[in-house]
Design a protein that fits this description.
By secondary structure, the protein is α/β, with parallel strands linked by helices. It is built from 12 helices and 15 strands. Strand 7, helix 8 and strand 8 form a beta-alpha-beta unit. This is Galactonate dehydratase.
């Protein structure tokens, strides 16, 4: 079997989808994307596939991963690793379809039958966010994550801090003590503020505080972790096992959140999970993207013991009205029940793509960039 061709589709809201074709008619799909840098990743995928994969045997997944990663003198980073990730998704999809098995069975077999998923909560007003949390709790979700605050200055006023803490209190009160609540600082909080804030949030019995600092400050994570009983998490802006290595050695986190679209795909995410397991660190994959990324990430989630929960942004509770699940031939592929997604059993990534719908969506211009925020003095704020 040989790889004969590929296509890339930019589709709303901010996805880039890859189709890999073979001479035996087996097709694999992947999702290579850096949100807000779609065209840059498109160019990287095109360069990698045309230079290294056309005419090659798609079943040599590990060899291709090493070749695509190691053949470049300059390696890593968000663009190259995300391009590699989408290619890796598609190669595993082809391999699973070739052998008639889900990818997670090829990676050692499933260790669970269902996986807890968490719901993202948006909004700023404590009452509005609490109402949304209560509604999603009634829909069956048992775990939630939300941003601690919007623009947050390196040194903030007591009022700004109190308002942010009130949001946490309102959500905890809305969902009750039998639900998981995670708070994402999103790298918006400075090191001088983070130490005090994590202690103030201990009263809410959080499942974790995510990205208390920017990834550039990963050497300081251990110091934050020592000052609180709340588990510390990070990882959505890390791009390989090499980025996670020192953080694990320093005992800086209790939870890592790798994203299968950014860490080099299924192959690398499986290794990251195994490496974290040796340090008794749990994995809660980051995944605010489409069904292909979600399906790829679940393949690791169902074969790795320390993957304990998973993000989703697909409205799994109501697949018949979810716009994001319409790219699947069967929007009900991901069976959601009582806060969990059930193990997919189809071959490859376990999904069937509605290619005609994707081609229709790809006629729409996709030009998504994250907002650029400013503080009141005009300086750029972290988003």
């Amino acid at each position: 079997m040989q790889i004969t061709d590929f296509e890339l589709f930019a589709v709303p809201p901010r996805w880039l989808l890859l189709k890999l074709e073979t001479d035996e008619g087996i097709v694999g799909w992947g999702e290579p994307i850096v949100q807000g840098r779609l065209e840059t990743v498109r160019a990287a995928v095109t360069e990698l596939v045309e230079a290294y994969l056309l005419g090659a045997d798609p079943l040599r997944t590990e060899y291709h991963w090493r070749k695509l990663y190691q053949s470049g003198y300059f390696r890593g980073g968000p663009i190259l690793m995300s391009a590699l990730a989408g290619i890796d998704h598609a190669l595993w999809d082809i391999k699973g379809r070739h052998y008639g098995a889900p990818v997670h069975e090829l990676l050692g077999g499933h260790v669970r039958n269902k996986l807890l998923v968490y719901q993202w909560l948006g909004g700023d007003d404590p009452e509005d966010v609490a109402a949304a949390a209560k509604e999603d709790r009634e829909r069956g979700y048992k775990a939630f994550k939300f941003n601690f605050a919007r623009e947050f200055r390196p040194i903030e006023t007591p009022n700004a801090v109190d308002h942010a803490v009130e949001r946490v209190a309102a959500i905890r009160d809305a969902v009750g003590d039998d639900a998981f609540v995670g708070v994402d600082f999103h790298g918006r909080v400075s090191k001088p503020m983070a130490a005090d804030l994590v202690q103030r949030l201990e009263q809410f019995d959080l499942m974790f505080i995510d990205q208390p600092l920017l990834p550039e400050q990963d050497a300081s994570f251990a110091g934050i972790a020592e000052q609180t009983t709340v588990p510390i998490a990070t990882g959505e802006r890390f791009y390989s096992r090499y980025d996670f290595k020192q953080l694990l050695v320093d005992d800086g986190v209790s939870i890592i959140q790798p994203d299968v679209t950014h860490v080099g795909g299924i192959s690398e995410m499986r290794k990251i999970a195994s490496m974290a397991e040796a340090f008794d660190v749990a994995v809660v994959p980051h995944c605010p993207l489409g069904p292909i990324a979600f399906a790829a990430s679940l393949q690791v989630g169902f074969c790795a013991q320390n993957v304990v929960m998973h993000e989703q942004d697909l409205d799994l509770h109501d697949p018949t009205t979810s716009q994001r699940l319409k790219v699947l031939e069967d929007p009900e592929t991901f069976r959601f029940e009582d806060g969990y997604v059930k193990r997919p059993t189809g071959p490859g990534l376990g999904i069937e793509i509605d290619e005609a719908h994707i081609r229709e969506l790809s006629q729409t211009e996709v030009n998504w960039y994250n907002p650029v925020w400013h503080h009141e003095d005009g300086s750029v704020a972290e988003w």
